[in-house]
Structure formats: structure tokens, C-alpha cells
Amino acid sequence: MTTKAEPPPRAVRIDVRDLTKRYGRSLAVDRLTFRVEPGRVTGFLGPNGAGKTTTMRMMLGLDRPTSGEVLVDGRPYAQIQEPLRQVGALLDASAVHPGRRARDHLLVLGRSNSIPDARVDEMLDRVGLASVSRRRVGGFSLGMRQRLGLAAALLGDPQVLILDEPLNGLDPGGIRWMRDQLRELAEDGRAVLVSSHLMNEMAVTADHLIIIGRGRLLADVGMTEFSARYGRRRVRLRTTRPERLGRALAADGFTLRPVNSGTWEVLEALPDRIGAVAAREGVPLQELYLSEDSLEETFLRMTLRSTEFAAVAGRKAR
Q1: Do 129 and 137 touch, CB atoms closer than 8 A?
Q2: pTM score, whole prediction
Q3: Domain made up of 14-228: CATH architecture
Q4: 179-223 confidence digits (pLDDT tens)
């Protein structure tokens, strides 16, 4: 006799619709509209003060919107019965009573949503905390608390995950572990929303990007399209005769700019075009290659006018 296979879980998404939040005269979130689709990791990016955490809090019913709405599977979070089974969240890894043991913390959460105790031990093992499950959380490092927070988020096997800076406090091995966890969760068909300031990690983890600044949407785009739409490409080269090459390029409508000692660049150009000009002028090239902005470089340029606090650049940066 064969056992009937369990049907795959139904795909669930988050809909953010014209979401606005004011605190007195301060506008924290300004008419945000986007979707977090199942089956992919969505990176939620923005400078400090952009409104990311406020948006996530409204998703979870912790803050009430001034206007607009957030729907999870077509319903506000407050209307979801046993919400841990629908939405897993990690907003603040330190928001755990320090005197409570790790396993007891998860047991309380699980029993409040009719989740079997066996699931607690399963999640502690998954995040690598089984051996310290009876230790009090007050003695945990930030990285251990992040792991405990992820265990809590996964406790109800939810189809939606909302994680605010889950990489904070993790060592390189922990960051790689978390990256693998996020990818696996998305591949299982879950909608995974992750905020982070670690651009290099988001570049290799996220499938889609939502970028906001001063509460407004700046970009809603797939990772593969992001560089083509918002990034800049440039040709970088090394030559012993930059003055002559610069004059020749200027005649063709290009500008040769110094990068550092011995290295120069030409924005929005291709190597074969620049190489042809150098060959025509008899200018020797020691190096010639195409370079594109990283996610971090593009993000910083996009959010330059949306940054709440900006330090004065040093001589080298200027």
C-alpha cells in the first residue's frame, strides 16, 4: 500500500500597498508599494533611517500604519490565527528575557501556537544550539542569539519569513551558514524578506531587491537586472602616456579620469573602443579591462541624497 504524498504548501506572498507612517511631523514611510514573492530571497535595503524596520513592524502588526496596508496571503497579520505557522519573524535578536533558557523560550512560543514540543528540539538542532539549549540566554553572544531568533522564526514552519539584520554578530562561518539557510528556505517556496547593511552578502544571497530611502521606494528590481538598470560600467586601464590618450579620447567624446597612481578609467565605454583609440594614437597599454559597479557602489550612489547621517569624506575618498 502506498502512502499518499503530502501536497506542496500553497505559495504565500506579502503585499505592501500605499503604506505610510507618520510620527508627528516626521514621515517615516511614504506611500510604499511592493510585493515580496514566494520562492526567492528579497533583499530589503536602505540607509539608516530609511524606514526599513518601521515597515517590517507594520507588516507584523507591531505599528499601525497612518494609511495603506500590508497583507500576508490576503489578510492583515492581526487576523491570522496561530501566526507563527504563517509568518516567522526576527526583528531584534536581543529581545529575549536573559534569565530564560533557550529551550524554554522556544517552548513558550511553540505552545502559544499549538506547535509540538518536538519541533523545538528539531529547530535547536537545525540552528546549532542543541548543546546549549538549557543555558540562559543572558550568557549568549549576539551570534548565538541570532541563531535562536532564526529557530523561533522557523518554529511554525511558516511560508513567510521577515528578518531584520539577521547577519549581525555572526562570524564568517555563521554568515555563510545563514546565507545557506536563506537560500534553502526560498528554494522550498517560501517568501523571504531580509534587511541587511552587508551589501556583499546581499549581492550573493538576494534574488530581488527592494531599496528605499527616506521612506520612499527607490528600486524594485531583480538582482540580475539591477546592474544593467542602475549600475555604471567603465573601462579601466594603465598607460605611460595618459595625457596623449586623454586628448584623443576627448576628441571622440570620452573623458579619461585618474583612479589612483597609474590607473585611469573611462565611464560608459567598452574596452575595444578604447583599445582602438590607443592603437590609432600609438599609446601603449599595460592593462585594459571592463569594470562594473558593485551592489555597494550602486547602492551608495542611489541613496546619497537619502542618507540621514553622512560623515565628511577624507582626502582619499574625495
Answers
A1: no
A2: 0.85
A3: 3-Layer(aba) Sandwich (3.40)
A4: 999 999 999 999 999 999 999 899 999 999 999 999 999 999 999
